[in-house]
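Box 3.1 — From sequence to structure: Cytochrome c oxidase accessory protein CcoG
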Amino acid sequence: MSERIPVKDISPIKIHQPDSREHNDNYAPRSRIYVRAVQGPLETFRRYFGLFFVGLFAVLPWLRYEGHQAILFDIGEQRFNIFGLTLWPQDLTILAWIFIIGAFALFFITTFAGRVWCGFMCPQTAWTYMFVWFEEKLEGSRHQRMKLDQRPMDLDKFWRKTAKHLCWLAVAVLTSLTFVGYFTPIDALFVDFFTLETGFWVSLWVWFFTFCTYGNAGWMREIMCTHICPYARFQSVMFDKDTFTVTYDTNRGERRGPRGRKTSREQLMAEGVGDCIDCHLCVQVCPTGIDIRNGLQYECINCGACVDACNGVMDKMGYPKGLIRYTTESMLTGGHTHIIRPKLVGYAVVLLVMIGFLALDLFTRVPLDVDILRDRNQLYRETSDGLVENVYTLKILNKSQHEMRYQIGVEGLLDARYIGPQEITVRGGEVYVEPVSVAVNPYNLDSNITDIRFRISALGEDNESVEVVEPTKFLYR
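Predicted structure (token representation):
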């Protein structure tokens, strides 16, 4: 009993507090990234490529096709108009094929050329660069913007900041109106919005997407790419040794460091000094603020801005271009890039198969939908002249965009009497509802339940092949 019980010290351990004064502090809160302007062939291509798709986005909802808006996703009416094609909830498979094709096309491109979707086609990137352009025009270059933010508020800073945010807000409003214009008639939308006559829900969605555009492209920027977008997290799964990505050539660039222009490259190589002069331009032009020299990182969007910046420096130094370039891991290690490889071929095959299914679905699609609903209040009734009658509700959906005439007939019963309109006219995109009935002599019935068919055929020279046969039941006793 005299032995002492050992006691273990469980006092809390002092947690390491990082020094926020250090340059590379992984624990430091996010600081604003001042993107530096860059010139080069990749940057020029990216600008015109993005401008083309932004222009396409802005123009498409204004196009007219046969008197109506060419592209209109009318959720209230549950129909999508895409030029001459109208999709209904019954055509969900077509939309599914389109989304699947888009996904596998993205997988295919990512496996081949890395995250180029993010760098060249993503709306977040396009609108971010658009907002940065306003910053450069109103606040100056990267260095000037940094100095401006460090200054206390004065008249010059106030008007520049105010003008920038007003431009951002104007672009955000126009973007939101255009986007909402894909879901409601855009010509009426613009008139109603600027005359303050839009309804509650339309106004809500316009201001909601305005807030999203203004916040995403103006304030969040790289946060969308590095923390919110799920594609950044799983895109590296599709990479392999033969995927083209923006890469820093470590063997050629290290050991990095500044040097005079008069020092020959051969002399520096003999001293073990690489081609990288450590100018940090590749970091300053990066929209996500990473250092590509640290290797492949999920934050890299493969925009190629660092490639143009580095090539410009190499030109000035008289060094060969390509210290940072689009290349593969195989080429960096001295091997050969295999363009045709199982993963890429697999994605291509699946993509072609999905395109084939979409084409088949489109070509076999009938622009007519018929539904027959039996009267649930009464299974059958006997008429005054001794016939047995069943009552149905006939629903005919004209899935085309043109007015159509249809002929209605009944098959499957001997000497059946169809009571209802023989021919009807249905306008494009409308549903025709009509109660009809079928009567027959009970002596012509072989059982209590008889299978019958309603045949609806389109009339006219151009619509001879449009025909739907809808089965139903005829009940007696």
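Summary of the box: Residues 240-332 form one domain.
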